[in-house]
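FORM 12-B: Structure-to-Sequence Request
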């Protein structure tokens, strides 16, 4: 009997192999494989180990990202402490955001009584002041008022914003710091704002130090 004839026979009678599976050393498809308990526990242990390794890799990545952010915050703090004049402090602020954070779209507006020393940054619009008062924490997301958008050049198109109210503890805001990006994922509503809040506090303290010193 030729192989073609054998194949034709099996195609015509598919139940033949199942009926004679033991003779040919075949295992029926419906037969269940019994796994020893020790082997099953080993497989489960390996699966848990892979999950833990993945979680550890995530934690390490988060830790490294936090270290980088803390390093950038340290650079910003040193830059703010190094300046004693309002205009020099603002320049140090914007240049450090560009160099350390890769953010070259930074806008600052002030309505502190001593901000007359920085006329280009003075803001008299009540809508902006009220917006800052409404911010109990930094706002992150794709939206900004027409006025805030107008503080930036028309190009590139900005897709996300971080808006930080500037205030002394327990006092009304005296300014608004806005960071903007053409990347829609740079500042999102879902992101944590702990570091941004700390930046707002540092910038507030640095500005008040030079503004109120000059006012005395």
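FORM 12-B RESPONSE
SEQUENCE OUT:
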């Amino acid at each position: 009997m030729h192989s073609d004839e054998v194949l034709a026979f099996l195609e015509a009678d598919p139940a033949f192999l199942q009926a004679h599976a033991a003779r040919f050393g075949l295992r029926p498809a419906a037969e269940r494989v019994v796994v020893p308990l020790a082997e099953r526990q080993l497989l489960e242990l390996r699966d848990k180990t892979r999950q833990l390794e993945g979680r550890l890799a995530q934690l390490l990545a988060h830790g490294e990202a936090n270290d980088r952010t803390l390093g950038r915050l340290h650079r910003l703090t040193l830059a703010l402490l190094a300046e004693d004049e309002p205009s020099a402090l603002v320049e140090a602020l914007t240049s450090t955001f560009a160099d350390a954070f890769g953010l070259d779209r930074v806008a600052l507006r002030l309505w502190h009584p001593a901000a007359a020393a920085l006329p280009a940054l003075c803001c008299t619009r009540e809508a902006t002041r009220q917006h800052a008062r409404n911010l109990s924490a930094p706002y992150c997301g794709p939206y900004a008022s027409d006025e805030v958008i107008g503080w930036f050049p028309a190009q590139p198109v900005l897709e996300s914003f971080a808006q930080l109210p500037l205030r002394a503890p327990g006092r009304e805001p005296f300014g608004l710091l806005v960071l903007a990006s053409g990347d829609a994922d740079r500042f999102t509503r879902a992101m944590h704002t702990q570091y941004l809040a700390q930046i707002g506090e540092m910038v507030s303290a640095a500005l008040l130090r030079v503004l109120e010193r000059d006012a005395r």
